Amino acid sequence: MSSQDKPNASQQSLLPLHRLKNELFALGLDKPEQLDASGVHKIFTAFAEFVRKNASKPLPKPSEKECLERAVPWCNMTHQPPSQPSHSYTNGATHDTTANTSPPPPPHSLQYRFLHFSDISSQLAEEVKSGVVFGFTSLADNNVSYCMGCVDNEKDIPSGTTLMGVYCLTPSPSEEVLKDLCQKYSKSKKSGKLVVLTTICDQKELKTRFFEIKSKELCECSHEVVDDNEAIDQTIIVRLKANICLTFKTSIDTFVDNWTEELNKAKEDINSYDLELIQSCFKTNISATDKSFNSMTLTDLYGYLEEDPDLFDGIEVPQNMKKKMIEKMRKKKANDKSPLEFTAFNGSNSTKSDDTSEDIELSEDLKEVKLNIRIDSLSRIQEMNSISYLIKLFSNQMKQQLTSYGNQWTECVKSDKRLPSLQTYNFWPKNVSHFVSIVYPKSLSDEQLVSRRKEYHLRYLIRNDRPVFRKSNRFLLDNEKPKTDYLTSVHIGLKESGLKGGQTYCVYGDYTYHHYMQDRMDDNGWGCAYRSLQTIVSWFRHQSYIDKPVPSHTDIQQALVDVGDKQPSFVGSRQWIGSQEVSYVLSHLYEITSKIMFVNSGAELANKGRELAHHFTTNGTPIMIGGGVLAHTIIGIDFSEDTGDIKFLILDPHYTGGEDLNTIQKKGWCGWKASTFWDKNSFYNLCLPQRPDTY
User: Fold this and answer.
1) Do residues 528 and 631 make contact, with C-beta atoms less than 8 angstroms apart?
2) What is the pLDDT of residue 685?
3) Where is the UFSP1/2/DUB catalytic domain (predicted)?
4) Of the four, 41, 141, 313, 354, which is 20 to 30 A from 543 by CA?
């Protein structure tokens, strides 16, 4: 709003009434049937907040009691004491306990998740209400320690991290409870400190303290919430793969005893395994005692890398030039902190896994069992850690995964007399700064693993409002990702929008860029909404909500015929579709619901920042927008709460070129657009797909 457009004092008091609908939409209260006592409280709090901001005279914020009393004539309902209003937060907040006020935590950060689980601690089982905090002390600055996550059992601390302290989700626990908890996990230590994470009752605030192991006393300390990348940038992804084949005589009655004995032998044999850094000349034994490994760091391993098979691609290159190119490749991989992949092998045990292994029935005539154990471990290790540390870590990882396999097989034998083929799945949940490794039976579907997945959500204090531990959520290195004809998440790498004082809200997770002329389909001039719909569906696939394929133009048209929106002649035509049709297809083919936002003109879109920010914060899905004869995809906004200024991050489906990221970004096919991008003489409909609340 420009200075000349700013209302005078007499007009300002009417502003909240005019914009109340926008505020309610941002709070998720756009539907009357959603209004309970808590909702009424939100309405009046928001109303008073808006009046206070815009009125010529300051107004006091109403109490919850006043809100409900004012609401009685409006709503025919039985009022219960309203719960504390929920909040949505954006990334980039910091927190210090020495400050008088603390800004809201970033969504899905450790602080955000900890406060959520503390808030619902009364609903949790006792075993997850307390546990350990893990992370690492920076080797670059030993005065700085990073708390990366929480887990209910010390044995499940992710590789590459260590015990940093303890947590208790019960609000405002007594000192006695905390001291007992700290002493439980510090028995092996004679001195030092443990971080203690708790919450302050009714304040929704994280509280940190130190426990002095020697004096057994608690003392105050401050903390700061930092971006995950501050810790992650000090680490390198390291992978270990191995295949262990065990064949032994047994019977159905003695299997558990025989298997336990073989498992212990396999753990002892690990010290005889050789380690090899893939595509390098680095090779050593797990039991190696080379003193030079104590002073060599992970970064030094890049110097052992040999030529990449694709580096020269069959071209004859002079030896001196080849040497320079290899050195350049090593430096680039070191600067990029590219993952380091190792294999471990021992004699007859192949480094290749047997993916053809099947479940084994334990019948009465069982005499011999052959088991394939596929070790697959992913870790984030500080780049300044020594190679000796890495080798010891690999040894522990192999033993831990052997134990995981053993525990599952023992349970299966007791329950259904079957040995399932098992596989390790490594997960790196978005906005979580550590890996989680889980062993699942290969033959079981995600639906059959619901209880197991819920268990891991609780164990690592990760909210179960979205898929995280489904098999398709597993983390893949770049060289493992399936080759595709499409580009993914093309907005990554763009410059900032340039909006002063704005906050960026973007899609949550990956999507595939669909545009004109792909799939050997000439849809230039009519298929933009189809392509936007395909991008939306790809988002749901990438987040593992669905496994159905992205629909073709024919699939989309047939779906609209099936729901009765179009006549049969529509299939095979070149007719446009709009946001309403997009919502029909999402609902019919994928059971995805959508909200439709109607805007009278392109100019009015500039006033929708609050609603769009709420959408990206709570749902994070791409938005299809149609107006006039054009359709686009909104994948983010930059919005200033203070000025109301806004810029839109647009993914343009009208692009007809090849899959060239440089062209797409530099030519603006994916980029930031001002409000003037929208036609002020056209009305627009926006389809806002709603993320299912499921895991």
Assistant:
1) yes
2) 96
3) 503-687
4) 354
CA distances for 41 relative to 33, 66, 183, 535, angstroms: 15, 9, 44, 38
Q: Find the helix or strand (DSSP H, E) in which 626 lies.
A: strand 623-627
Distance of alpha carbon 182 from alpha carbon 132, whole angstroms: 9
Structure tokens of 304?
């052992």
Query: Alpha carbon of 276 to those of 345, 355, 394, 442: distances in Å?
Result: 9, 22, 12, 27
For residue 196, the cross-strand partners are 166, 209
List of domains in the chain: 3-71 (no CATH), 110-232 (3.40.140), 236-473 (no CATH), 503-689 (3.90.70.130)
- CA 665/CA 672 separation, integer angstroms: 10
Measure the CA–CA gap between 162 and 434, rounded to whole angstroms.
Answer: 12
Contact yes or no for 91/50 (Cβ under 8 A): no
Q: Do residues 633 and 512 make contact, with C-beta atoms less than 8 angstroms apart? A: no
Share of the chain above pLDDT 70, in %: 82
Residue with tokens 């889980």: 438
333-350 tens-digit pLDDT: 999 999 999 999 987 555
Angle at 559 between CA 555 and CA 561, to 5 degrees: 120
User: How is residue 39 written in tokens?
Assistant: 């909702």
Beta bridge partners of 625: 632, 686
Per-residue pLDDT band at 63 (split at 50, 70, 90): very low
Kindly tell me if the per-residue pLDDT of 70 is higher than 50.
Answer: no
Q: Of 341, 336, 382, 91, which is closest to residue 232 (Cα–Cα)?
A: 382
Average pLDDT score over the chain: 83
Q: Could you give the residue numbers annotated as active site?
A: 528, 652, 654
Q: What are phi and psi of 335, to 5 degrees?
A: -65, -40
Higher pLDDT, 667 or 15: 667
Whether the pTM exceeds 0.70: the reply is yes
Query: Is residue 243's pLDDT more than 80?
Result: yes
Range picked from 115-124, 426-435, 557-566 for highest mean pLDDT? 557-566
Q: Which helix (H) or strand (E) holds 48?
A: helix 37-54
CA gap 174, 488 in Å, rounded:
50
The DSSP code sequence of 435-495 is -EEEEEETT--TGGGHHHHHHHHHHTT--SSS-SSSGGG----GGGSPP-SS-B-TTTTPP
166 close to 194: Cβ distance less than 8 angstroms: yes
Q: How much is the average pLDDT of 450-455?
A: 95
- CB 472 within 8 Å of CB 547: yes
| pLDDT reported for residue 24 | 47
- Confidence tier at 694 by pLDDT (50, 70, 90): very high
Residue 436, strand partner residues? 427
Tens of pLDDT, residue by residue over 508-553, are 999 999 999 999 999 999 999 999 999 999 999 999 999 999 999 9
Determine whether 240 is exposed, middle or buried from the number of CB atoms within 10 Å of its CB (0-12, 13-18, 19+): buried
